[in-house]
Amino acid sequence: MLLLFVIGSRASVLDGEDDADANVKDVTIDNFSVSARGKELLKNASVKISHGKRYGLVGPNGMGKSTLLKLLAWRKIPVPKNIDVLLVEQEVVGDDKTALEAVVSANEELIKLRQEVASLQDASNMSTGENGEDDDGDDVGEKLSELYEKLQLMGSDAAEAQASKILAGLGFTKDMQCRPTKSFSGGWRMRISLARALFVQPTLLLLDEPTNHLDLRAVLWLEEYLCRWKKTLVVVSHDRDFLNTVCSEIIHLHDLKLHLYRGNFDDFEVGYEQRRKEKNKKFEIYEKQVKAAKKSGNRAQQEKVKDRAKFSAAKEASKNKGKSKVDEDEPVPEAPQKWRDYTVEFHFPEPTELTPPLLQLIEVSFSYPNREDFKLSSVDVGIDMGTRVAIVGPNGAGKSTLLNLLAGDLVPTEGEVRRSQKLRIGRYSQHFVDLLTMDENPVQYLLRLHPDQEGLSKQEAVRAKLGKFGLPSHNHLTPIAKLSGGQKARVVFTSISMSKPHILLLDEPTNHLDMQSIDALADALDEFTGGVVLVSHDSRLISRVCGDEEKSEIWVVENGTVEFFPGSFEEYKEELVKEIRAEVDD
């Protein structure tokens, strides 16, 4: 649990104590600061979240995005009392309720009214005399009539149908909707939590990486559904296409501040680049003036340059806030500083040439013991140097099983696997944490797996590789158990790179990566001359890796087999979107 120290919020008007503010639906964050475990996350940050708009909250991992969502949900950031806030961050607790019941029960007021109606009906039946007359019948009838009217206004008759539609969009079949929640894995329970939030429709909905547990079809369905969202949405996501489709505003957490950009993520990137250039230009001018003043040796002139720069910054700040003068309570603007960019670089070494075929599954079938509901049959696929494959299909259809068969982690029940003797496979699994040794630090772990490092210092060689994959130097000697999910992922990617693979098998590689790292991964895969097989819900990454129709293949895993899609990934995606729009509009 993070220890949070919150200071400096100047949003007292929104505490909800004044009746005049009963209809306020905007959330104003004003000069807000927060630290977690001694690390400053926000300093005098300000932004306004306007009702009815859909915001994407972006920025590198570990900078405080999830913390900000939690502070809003916990109302540590003042939120008007009339606004109901819901943060989806934990999977639903598994019990005997069906998935459908779990979603409908999220509307507590609806359930309470239904229970009240049932109690009144029972009481009415019990109090009816032998002659069939009920002394209190008129009162009970009047009360029931009133409750029925409330239920009708709440759409009680359509509640189960609406909940079922949401669950279906998120990948639940009719049979799955009737299964108890305790029978589902954590990923599916997260989907139920998301379905509950969409069903309740809170005034302020907060989503933290909602696509991480979804397959591609479910992601596209969620995009379409949220595009029709009429209330306020704040979503943390590293999926560019998702942000582009869903969001009308972007809040960028940068340099301990919250910067608002109008438009979707593409618009944000244009605005961000312009802002970066402008700030760096001002810094360059300021730096030249300071150097000139220092050269003259005139201390008074040096202070004059600094004061003039601060005055210009203060004037600009007041202009941006629409004020005629600077507020005395606000922090004094600082002199221009260089824009601090976060960069990361992934790299997979050039593989040695091998004679094709590198890897083949020939008429392979596979089934798990005691799993009569699952089987892959007649799988006939191959991978060579330069092959680019996207494996698509619904969750549970067998995408990860197919990767395990290719990797050799599973043995087919029928058919043949042919693998080049010198073939090295780099494998990234959704459950990569199971591969890590938690009591070792990243350097120890990598040196044990890859002891043949060149150079004067093996430790320095490993640390240089970890740094390129975006793991901060102070974490290189931290026990792996204490690293975040994203930091552990970087250790795994570093290890894959050091194994010098011929083929990369990647199962949902973006789940723990921030946007800059996803871009770096896409760039590295572009340059990699070996084979790449990718399972991902991130359509932009698939487009980057498998965008060339002549060199790429789309394998569709569905209905117990693997089929080749006769077209590009974009065409496959367009087919899905057409189906989904028809469902959502229905």
Automatic annotation (TrEMBL):
Annotated spans, Disordered: 294-334
Keywords (A to Z) from UniProt: ATP-binding, Nucleotide-binding, Repeat, Signal
Signal peptide: 1-16
Feature: compositional bias, Basic and acidic residues: 301-310
Keyword set includes Repeat: yes
Superkingdom, taxonomy of origin: Eukaryota
SUPFAM superfamilies listed in its UniProt record: P-loop containing nucleoside triphosphate hydrolases (SSF52540)
Record's protein name: ABC transporter domain-containing protein
Organism encoding this protein: Rehmannia glutinosa (Chinese foxglove)
